[in-house]
Amino acid sequence: MIPRELQRVSILGDGTQAPSDAEFIADAVASTYGDYTRIQGMLLDRTSHLHGRVPAGGNILFLDGHTAWRPFREMKPRIPVDVGVVWDF
After folding, report:
1. How far apart are CA 7 and CA 4, in angstroms?
2. How far is residue 60 from each of residues 4, 25, 46, 68, 88, measured CA to CA in Å?
3. Which positions ≥6 away from 33 have C-beta within 8 Å?
4. More confident call, 41 vs 14
5. How far apart are the two ends of the chain, measured CA to CA in Å?
6. What pTM was computed for the model?
7. For residue range 29-61, what is the model confidence (pLDDT) as tens digits?
8. Which long-range contacts (CB under 8 A, 24 or more apart) does 77-83 make?
9. 3-class SS at 5?
10. Helix/strand/coil for 4
């Protein structure tokens, strides 16, 4: 479940941020116990945009339609899951 503070309920914005600052969609970077190359869910997978064994970063789409690249070092763990999977964005 996505925490409420990370949810967007309207593409019109929430009145607290300009559309150019409001993140709408982000590449999720997942890991299982810190391993980005072997993520075990229903299928065995890996995260996107790997640079060796570590993610390079991810794309972000903002409400105004522009995109930006966020380097992995600027991402934060946001959604931990009980089975050892962590989603960073």
Report:
1. 5
2. 19, 6, 19, 5, 12
3. 84
4. 41
5. 15
6. 0.72
7. 888 888 889 887 778 888 889 999 999 999 999
8. 78/3, 78/6, 79/2, 79/3, 79/6, 83/32, 83/40, 83/41
9. helix
10. helix
Average pLDDT on 15-26 reads 82
Q: Please answer whether residues 71 and 57 qualify as being in contact, where contact means their C-beta atoms are separated by less than 8 angstroms.
A: yes
CA-to-CA dists, residue 26 to 23, 42, 58, angstroms: 7, 22, 7
Q: Which two tokens stand for residue 31?
A: 């890991």
Task: Copy the structure tokens of residue 80.
Answer: 């931990």
C-beta separation of 69 from 57 below 8 A: yes
Burial of 86 (0-12, 13-18, 19+ CB in 10 A): middle
The closest of 58, 49, 43 to 88, measured between CA atoms, is 58
